Structure formats: structure tokens, C-alpha cells
Amino acid sequence: MHDAGVQGDDLTFVHCCCSSQEEIAMMADASVSASLGVHCELNAQGIGIPLNRMLAAGIRPSLSGDTETKCSGDMFT
């Protein structure tokens, strides 16, 4: 997508847990947005939340509730 030039500020990536630092840098260069389903990602075994890597690259992700069939949609209690 990056090489094809189709990434832009109208594109939102979700989760991004398996994204490499290089991929996150490409996302930042293209000014895309990101959304993290933190509650579900915390319950996924062996997969970390890429928040710190995104912040370091200049991406400020939003929070998403993802799917309530996998985990509760309540992230704050």
C-alpha cells in the first residue's frame, strides 16, 4: 500500500499488533490514523499493544471497543 501511494490521512489501521517498526514508520510518513482495540489486545496471548511504538513514530491512536463477543466492551471499569 505504501509503495502504491494509496495510504493517506483518510485511512485508519486497526489493531496493528503485528506491525513492524518499519511499517509503523510508513504509516506515520503517510499520515494515516490508527485505532487500538486495547481491551481485546490485552487478552490476545503473546501479542503486545503497539501504543508506545506508535507514539514514538508520531501516531496518536484512538481507542476502539472491537467486538464484545471476544471480550467486554467496557474498557474503563
- How many β-strand runs? 3
| Estimated share of beta-strand residues | 5-15%
Q: Any idea what the shape is?
A: elongated
Mean pLDDT: 85
Give the fraction of residues assigned to helices: 25-40%
Q: Give the topology string: H per helix, E per strand.
A: EHEHHE
* SSE-based structural type: alpha/beta
Counted by DSSP, the helix tally is 3
Q: How much is the radius of gyration in Å?
A: 13 Å
End-to-end span in angstroms?
38 Å
Q: Let me know the largest β-sheet.
A: 3 strands, parallel
Strand order, main sheet: write it out. 1-2-3
Task: Outline the low-pLDDT stretches.
Answer: none
Organism: Cupriavidus basilensis
Protein name: BOX element protein
Question: How does this model look, in words?
Answer:
With 77 residues, this protein is of the alpha/beta class. It has a domain at 12-63. It has three helices and three strands, in the order E-H-E-H-H-E. The protein has helices at residues 21-29, 38-43, 51-57, and strands at residues 12-14, 33-36, 62-63. It has a three-stranded parallel β-sheet with strand order 1-2-3, with no helix packed on it. The N and C termini lie far apart (38 Å). The mean pLDDT is 85. InterPro entries: Metal_Hydrolase. It comes from Cupriavidus basilensis. This is BOX element protein.
